[in-house]
Amino acid sequence: MTSPYGVLTLVCNVNAGGGGVGKCLPEVERLLAERGLEYEVLRTEAPGHATLLAKGAVERGRQLIVGVGGDGTVHEVVNGLIEDDKAINPEVRLGVVAAGTGCDFIKTFGIPSSPSHAVVHLDGHESFPIDIGKITFTEDGKEVVRYFANVAEAGLGARVVERAARLPRFLGPTLYFFAFWLSLARHKPAEVRVDLMTRTYEGPMNNMVIANGQFFGGGMKIAPKAAPTDGVLDFQIQHVGNRDAIAVLPKVYKGQHVPHPKILEAKRVEASIESNPPLLIEADGEVLGFTPARFELLRDAIHLKV
Predict the structure, then answer these.
(1) Torsional sign, CA 30, 31, 36, 40
(2) Cα 99 → chain centroid
(3) Which of 8, 81, 174, 239 shows the smallest number of beta carbons within 10 Å?
(4) What is the pLDDT of residues 65-85, one digit of tens each?
(5) Calpha distance 235→102 (Å, rounded)
(6) Dmax of the chain from CA atoms?
(7) Cis peptide before 189, with omega less than 30 degrees from 0?
(8) How many angstroms separate the Cα of 32 from the Cα of each of 70, 95, 116, 119, 193?
């Protein structure tokens, strides 16, 4: 059996997840060989390297690029597949084998979290187009563009991601939960102006969620109404106080935190935010830059292998 997409390119950060990706890679390779699927393994060496490896593979004619790892690896691979707001090669498919500390992106699609089961989904030709988010933000005083597959945030959520990066990996899926508690004590809301195209929100805000997928933070169902195939992003402008945030947190795991009187929800193809002070931004669990920022949807930007 061979893949209709030719040689598979596996982009791996073998040190991710406390070395979990590296530990599962031999099993993934064995299963690929058993299924008669030709493949190559490209190992990352530094942050951002997965983007360069993915882009290079596309330029060499590879048509199935597989991110092996967590949401951060998927994020970097996606940024290697898109240039100037469109796929470098529309024939390329994105594959995902979740490994390491976990991958929330796959939960929206029902792709198995077990690496050995995920390999089965790399067979055959089945795929479908998905939307991708675009962020234009400020980094070191310059305007920068990044693309995201799953969920982005501005505010408290980004600070939580930043804090989680400094916690021990053995916490696994509970990493975000502990980081939330450590970040909440020092957090203060910012005054923001959010342009939602047909309406504007001005006032205090703790966090802004921009969702393409439904899950993040180790299984939190942050955007239960989001779908990466519906042509819109799901926005949540959260101005919940610290005490209420503590009460809301358990509900997020089941997607029961919305509707809420202090969470403004909207579905839009574009929105922008200005804030005082500037707010930190994250996307797919990767800390980026600061507001002001603009969020846009790229409809059917890439194809996901399922």
Answers:
(1) negative
(2) 15
(3) 174
(4) 999 999 999 999 999 999 999
(5) 24
(6) 58
(7) no
(8) 19, 13, 9, 7, 50
Q: Measuring CA to CA, which residue among 66, 44, 51 is closest to residue 120?
A: 66
Shortest CA distance to 210 belongs to which of 192, 193, 197, 222?
Answer: 222
pLDDT digits (tens, 9 = 90+) for 148-183: 999 999 999 999 999 988 888 778 777 888 898 889
Can you list the alpha helix ranges (DSSP code H) found in 35-185?
Answer: 49-59, 71-81, 115-118, 156-164, 175-184
- Contact present, 125 and 4 (Cβ < 8 Å): yes
Q: What are phi and psi of 84, to 5 degrees?
A: 55, 40
CA–CA distance, 224 with 210 (Å, rounded to integer): 12
Query: Residue 265: beta bridge partners?
Result: 236
Residues in the chain, total: 306
Two tokens, residue 200: 């504007």
Nearest residue to 63 via CA among 84, 37, 85, 44: 37
Q: d(Cα 257, Cα 226) in Å, to the nearest integer? A: 14
In the chain, what are the domains?
8-125 (3.40.50.10330), 132-300 (2.60.200.40)
Strands (E), the chain: 8-12, 39-43, 64-69, 82-83, 86-87, 93-98, 127-139, 142-148, 151-155, 190-195, 200-205, 207-211, 233-238, 263-268, 270-276, 280-283, 286-305
pTM flag (> 0.90)? yes
Name the amino acid, one letter, at 12: C
- The angle formed by the CA atoms of residues 221, 224 and 225, to the nearest 5 degrees, is 155
